[in-house]
Amino acid sequence: MRRILEGLRRLLFGQPIATDALRSVTLRTRLALPVFGAGILSAVAYAPDAVVDALRRGSQQGAIPYMAGGVVIIMLLLGFAYRSNVRARPDGLGDYGTVRDLLGRKMGVVTGASLLIDYLFTVAVSVAAVTQLVAFLVPQTRRWDSLIAVGLIAVMTIVGLRVIRERARLLLTVWFGFLVVIGVMLVLGVARHGVETTSPIGANAPTTWTIVLAYAGAISSGAVMVTGIEHLASAAPSHAEPRGRRAGRTLIIAVAASAAAFLTVSLLAWSYRITGWADGPILLQTAEQVFRRPFMNWVVAIAAAAILYVAASAVFRRFSTLASSLARDAYLPRQLSMQSDRLVVRSGILTVAVASAIVVAVTGADVETLIHMYVVGAFAGIVLSQVAMVRHCTNKLQLATGSRDRTRLAVDRVLHATAAVVAAAVWFVVAIFNFINGAWVAIALITGLVIMMHAINRHYAAVRSDVTLRRSDRNISLPSATHGIVLIAQLHRPAMRALAYAKAARHSSLEAVGVQLEAAAARELQDKWGKIAAGVPLVILDSPYRDLVAPVLDYVASIHRRSPREVVVVYVPEYIVGRWWETFLHNRATKRLRAQLLGIDNVVVSAVPWHLESARELAAVEEIPPEHEQLP
What we know:
Elements lengths: L1 H12 L15 H8 L1 H5 L4 H11 L6 H25 L5 H10 L1 H33 L7 H18 L5 H27 L14 H14 L6 H5 L9 H29 L10 H10 L2 H35 L17 H18 L3 H33 L3 H31 L1 H33 L14 E6 L5 H12 L4 E8 L2 H14 L5 E5 L6 H14 L4 E10 L11 H10 L5 E9 L21
Parallel strand pairs: 1-2, 1-4, 2-3, 4-5
Helix pairs in contact: 2-9, 2-12, 4-10, 5-10, 5-12, 5-17, 6-7, 6-16, 7-8, 7-14, 7-15, 7-16, 7-18, 8-14, 8-15, 9-12, 9-13, 9-14, 10-17, 12-13, 13-14, 14-15, 16-17, 16-18, 17-18
């Protein structure tokens, strides 16, 4: 059975990878763009929907070009701000490291929690957007949106666990292929619109608060385009030298290309009078109006689905990296920092997979709801990162002596301060006006995660204080005596092996202990014990309520009351089985007893293994146990 399970494990996860086989890979800008820029470019598949949906609530779809322009301005502002980030700190910790080092660990925890939630919703939004594409092309699948999304997450999880690395050149094809599709849409859309009489939707002036709020909501929701920028900024270690400059260049190119693609789709949707009332993603509705060929709808959908898949897959690795950093700082369980035999943080991948699948299932893979949750987590980290960079520039400015350096730092400080204010405005608009529509979920998740992370840190601090060696610990005091207890349920070979182990330990005192569940079985055990002359007294504990655990615990407690400094060592025979279903037939009471004993101070529990025939791969024969014999 063990070999079968091991074979299935290798089939699912692949062969182990030695630590020495790990090689760091550096990429130039041309190849780094598709590897790290998929996140921000993939938002083109759903960001226009967010803008149109916000405007549709106030019947202001005619303002699409202006709102798209506002989103592009925010993208470029944050793009240049993050270029300054990555040039100043070309490490892989991203916003978490920046905020932790410049604003303190408490703000770092808030940033880390926000980014983890951001990554979680990146996966959820991406797979939900893919199901939206599928449902537009094949309407019969609409009822299976959640199932398709969860299945896609399962595929990404397996790929991530097997560490199947996408080749950079394949990603290059996906990234530039999507841009080419958008470019063809632009050229053909402009050409066809020029020869037709259909005029774009007219825009209304912001004369009432309702219209103003609709405009603010549209720009803030469309700012979901920026959510992949942190992943770009944390990719500096994967760039060739000079890392900071190359990573900054990659970031600006990716932001500019994504902004151009987003603006193209938005303007075409406005030109072709797409109001958002029809079902389906704005990208495919626009493609349908521009190309007017079902085949081209499939081409656009496949290109969009490919870039969404790449973006979500990259988040699995980024989530694991950030969770590993937080675990090393004692804010998450240490298991999240441990690599598996495939050199991947398996627990991190499984965490984001399970969490995103739950989110998708609960929301029904609804992109609109998920976007409101998504923006809150992403922009919380952006705001704190830019505030941290303002402090960084201020600290550097105090030490700078050259006029050129002081001018550059002063300009950077203004840039980061402006970016912080704009990002904070976006966060507040989304958090307040979309609170009921889903933003509260992200706020609650971030708050709960921050509380949990501080609790974990306090626990690890308490454990560290408890186990740290002190000067008084150098002189270890020995126990006054050791008292051995061998638990005997019936006289058989496992019991005799446990007794032999206990004798070899040469305890100060040793006794065998049995529990009387049935009077006949207890008398039979006493008779057999007297015949073998084991040289160890047998104590039978009465159990009027047929409980195996409580009498043993009471007996051990009575020994401690007599000799508080005496250490009690309890030997428990335990069966090692060879088939998975046999675990349900053995050791149930033994495991419960062992767990209870381990909670008592100055008690050592020693499990003495006995390998059954199935574990030794021998055939078992059916038989009827003798009368009064207890089943092992």
